[in-house]
Input
Amino acid sequence: MNSLFDLTGRTIVVVGGAGYLGGPLCEAFAQYGASLVVASRNVARCRALAEELSAKYKIAALGERVDILDTDSIRLLFRTASERFGKIDALVNNAYSSVFGSVETMTDELWDRGIQGTAGGAFRCVREVLPYMLNRQYGKIINIASMYGVMAPNPELYGGDSRIGSPACYGAGKAAVIQLTKYIAAYYGRRGILANCISPGPFPHQNVQENRDFMTALGEKTMLGRFGRPEELMGAAVFLASDASSYITGQNLCVDGGATSW
Output
C-alpha cells in the first residue's frame, strides 16, 4: 500500500503554496517524497517554505513567484519548473484572489475581479500547464474549489453583505472551477490527464478564528460539529496526486465535515 501513495520522483507545482492551506498541502507532498515548486505572489514566503521542506524531508524544492491574473507570470513559472526538474507531474491550483461586497453593491469591475481571481486564475494555470503534460501523456490536475461552489452560504451565519468572506462572486467562481475540472477530465482523460477537485469546507483563517461566536456557529453547520484543521486536507491531496487515484477523474472531493451533505 505504501507504494500507491509514494510520490518519489514526481514533480508537483503548488500555486498558492505558501498560505494557510497551501503550506500543509506542500508539506504533505514533501513527506511522500515529491519534488516541489511552491509558488505565489509572495516569493519570500515561498522560498522560505521551500527551504524548510527541503531541509526537513530531504527533497528538492523551489520557491517561485506567480500571479494567477498574469499569463506571462504563469508561463514563466511552468517553464522554470520544467527546466529545473525536467517535467511537471501534477499541478495544484490553490491560489485565489477575491473581493467583498453584497450583490446590491458589487460593481461590474469587482465582480469581474472576483471571477478572474477564482475561475480565471485556475483556467490560465490549467491552460499553460497542459502542453507540458500532454507532451508526456501524463499529468494530474488538482483544483482547490470550495464547499461554496456546491452550496450557498447561510446568510444567518455570514450576514447579508457577506463581509466575513463569502461574496456571490466567490461561490460562483468556485462552482466554475468544479465545472472546469470536469471539462478537463472529459476532454483530456484519454490523453493521460486526470483532473479532480478538492472542495474544502469551513477552514477559516486565523484572523477569522478570533471571532469565537462566529466560529461556534460555523462549526455547528457541519455534521461533525467543528471547523476543519489545515492538516485534514493533506490526505486527500496526497491521494489525488498519487497512483492511489489512478482511475479517478472528474470528481469533486468535499473535505467539509459533512457540511454539503445535510
